[in-house]
Amino acid sequence: MSETDKINYLNFTGCSQQNRYSRALDTEYVKIDERSFTDNLVYSLGLSKLLNYYNIHNRPDGDWSEFLTDEAVILSAISFIKPAEFEDKFKRNVYKSISFIKPDKKLKYLRVCFEEIFKVARKIDTWYQHLKHVEDFQQSELQIRNEISNVVDTKLRSGLQKFYSFVIAAKEEDTIHSVFNFNFESFSFIWQLEKVKASGAIYNGETLQQRIDSAAEALQNIFQLFYESVIYIRQKALTSLDFSLSQDNHYPEVALLLTFLKLYEYPQANINKLTGRYLDYYYRNVLRQSERNAEDDKAFLTFVLDKEACEAIVPKGAQFIAGTDDDGKNVFYSADEEIFLNKAKLVKMNNLYVARKSLNLDGEIVQRVSNLYKSSIPVIDWIEKPSLSKRMSYPTFGEDQEGLGNYDTTMEHARLGMAISSPALLLAEGKRELTIRIQLKEDAYNKLESQIKNVGKELACSFKEAIAKSLLDSLSISLTSNEGWLDVRNNIVTIERATNSLLIKFDVEPDKPSIVSFDSKLHGSEFDSDFPVMRLVLNNESYIYPYSLLSEVEVDQVIIHAKVLGVKNLLLHNNVGAVNANAPFYPFGPVPKVGSFLVIGNNEIFQKQLEDLKINLEWFELPQESNGFKDYYKDYRLNVDNASYEVSVSVLENGKWMPEEVDAKQKLKLFRTVDKPESVTPSPKHRLFTETRFNNIDMDLLRMVPDFRSINEKPQYTSMSKRGFLKLELINPVHAFGHDVYPAIVSDITLENSKSGFLKGKTKKDLPRSAFTPQVRSISVDYESISVISMKENFTTEEENAAGKIFHLHPFGCTKVFPNKSIKQINIIPSYDAQGELYLGLANVNPPQQVSLLFEMLDEFNISSEEEPPVLDWYFLSNDKWTVLKPSNILRDDTNNFLKTGIVVISLPDAINQNNTVLSNDLFWLKVSVKKNIEVASRNLSVASQVGLVTLIGNDKLHRSNYLDKPIPRYKIQRSVKSIKGVRSVIQPLPSFGGISHEKEKEFQARIGERLKHRNRAITAWDFERLILDRYKQIEKAVCLPNMTSNSLNAPGNVLMVVSPFPATVLNSKEPKASSELLFDIKSYIQKHASPFARIEVRNPSYERIRIICSVQFSGSHNNGFYIQKLNEDINNYLSGNIGSMSLGTQMDKVIYCSDVITYLRTLPYVEYITKFSMVQAARNITGNYELIDTAEEGKGKGGLQATKPWSVLVPADYHQFTILSDKHDEDSAQAGIDYLELGSDFIIKV
Is 1015-1099 in CATH node 3.10.20? Predict the structure, then answer.
């Protein structure tokens, strides 16, 4: 038999505060004289019937009961009657009459049944007649007599008449042949018995036995009429008795008796206190015990200073008014100690949660960060005194969001990554191909590679596949553009062993906007940079969240390689002047000659470190001769061809064209031919190609030191220009394009042709073509640049911007990590080693000074005391560096590491400042970091600044009154008795707490009685439960489960205590849970009273929700929406009522049966038909795994649900699942699918 099966046979009832008090100790439990006023009055009436009344002749003449014919006496007699007794007697005799076989026995018990009915009728009639006499004396109607008269008229008259007829007929031989000596003649006339005739209707049957059985069955209906009527009359009598006693219309002799009986109650009460006085003597005089004194409650106050005041002090003992007590006297609270106040105020709270998963890699448990979440917690402005009707709690240090729906999430994904700012990223146009090589330290690369191999082990895939799954979609990349941030859609991230690098590649297409320098107005005020910024952010939706891969990977240098194709935004000048490239232009002027030039300028290109440069020219209307320039200039006799035209290349550096020497300059062929358009050397004789691509420029000859200081400036070419330009100078052929020889050639041919005119028969020569002037249709530049940001270099202030900057992107800001001489090691992304963090933003701080904060905490989510308290560290932010606050700076912490509501007082060091970018720089920041056990930390409800604690100034009368039974509400304390210098107003943000009234008598007796039994030692389960309930009044119920833990039902030497607080003391009254602080405190307390060898655990109940799933048809044409909601409420009320009897500590074998719930649903007036019914239960098993128990699950055969563990409590789900039927038809129950379950409640995935 498994442990789960065994628990069905366990029974742990536990103890609640309500049943601690032993009834045997109550003076009301056994009284020396237990008779009530009614008892004594009825006794007097009975006694009067036993005493003879002697007339004036000294002869007995009746009894004394006639003297007690009074309304109060009669009402007492009526209220004294016990209907249950004669009902029980009647039913027993009916049963015997039917059960016996012999006729004489059957008849005997039937006669008793007749007699019982007659006695009841006789009593009612007697009450009526006596009350009639009282009415005659008082000359007024009595309400109780009218009630009896109405009952007789409506129900009893016909019943008694039938009964009388059956009695008359009973003497006949064909009935039961029995004579009853009942005197019906004395009955009042209201019964109208005069004309009643015999009726044998109830004596059916051939034999006497059959007739007796038939009569016994029929008499039950008549008896029921009288039984119900007696109950009704008795109830009316009870309500009328007090009124009757308060009237002055009683007989004098009866009034004397009533007075006596009332006076007798005083000595009676005194003698009945004898047991209490004895108990009190034993407890107080013998044992010398006394009641516990009251404990004054406390309240938190927050103070607002005057505008002119910078600081103030609330003196110790300063008094504050908290309204009045029941006597109208002021109630005062006083300050426990001096309270130092200033202007510092908490105005912002952020938190961060680092979600982690445990992985088992070859038997080693490895923690991997699965995501980071952030949120902002609202800060309440207590000066406005918000109503706070709906309280919201927030995870103080965050919480995991995995598995939560969109409407259930409490946090958002946190941004984390790196940003690179570099002039090398200034890429205005064209197709931009970027390769970012983040070169790592060798050991850092090895660690990264090892992490990726672990991913391969986890996913059972190859190393290459692990790289792809780990890194391919690991980063979200964006750049500063002229339209805002430009998101890069497709990028490749991989690693490169040869260079120990993380490699990032992506393209920016020509249709995308320009990548421009950072502009705070356009891109936000996050970065301190004059150059473009590229953000590399961890992708929260990646296959493997990359934090654990990249967080501790040290960067050696960052290499930015940019390849740009098609830069057209160029500044052009030739030897004539500026050139407009929007239309075909003359690159070397309209009359080019050797030395003519084209200057090309662009700061984006020529201020960078170029690795390659290509110039693309598209010519306009080149000669179309088949041999190109060879044919074009054949008449010039210059011996030029396509390869004759050359240009030299030089760059402007420090105001000089370099290289300076002519021979050192590279020579480039100006034109290309169709047969080999990509060749740098054209064919001498071939058709000219319309484009020229200078793709063989020797960059070694043009090497320039990059100068990024002026890269953002708009270039201008003047005689004063220093750099940023490239020049193509025409150097060959000598006569260039023949413009200087063309006039002479034309003159010679014209002269020669003129001579041939005189010489007949000689052919004239054609004039040569005019000298060709090259025109460019368009010009563009392709280039490749490289920029290296080396972490080894220390830049001076002037040189900071030369290579670039590196920033770390944090969830709420960023920090510059390079250049930054204070940082020795730069990782790819910042590290967050804590489980969660809380950031506190303070305004109006003037360090060094102290600040007091009140944290209102809520914890209903901790399971067990075995979960250790959170381990915290405090930090302050200075120059973007978190520095640990010394313990001496934490002057006070009443929250016990954020487990409970309390005040924290911190001495802010002088070093704290606003010179920060990791968080907003307009505030001073503190951080609380959780190293472990974050799940135990309480949730936050609110925070207040400039606070202090005050305590009630109590007195004995106040202590013994009900004043301390409930806290004073928030905002009750609004002012001090005496004005405090510098303080403008006082606010009480929270209700008071901690008040305990003087111990009541019953509480005192219960405590001492328990103490005598357990002797302040926890040995038995009874001892454990009573010790806890006595110490902790907020605990409603405690259950001791010996030899158990939360993880095992068979753990000898262990004690598992399950405690449940009063629902009214917690926000979630449906599932009340004790706070972590309370669980730890209970464990610490009970451990002191138990054996040192006992291992004690204190935990909350485990609540298991039940959800109903069914198809339903409502009666008539009802509003389905309304009745679905009503049905949901009715089911919850029904289940709550039934489950209430099976709450914490009840027998584990009790079951909520499907049949019972269905039966209840069918009794609802608006439900017509129910089918396809099932119930599901969400629970956690002993191992901590969730399981879904479904009564419709095939093969399980469950007819109901029950708690799965001794510490489990069944509760109805908030919402049930109903399907509306249009017509009646049966449907089989089906196992619940995802459509019927709710995330965060009972949506469980089985793996």
Answer: no
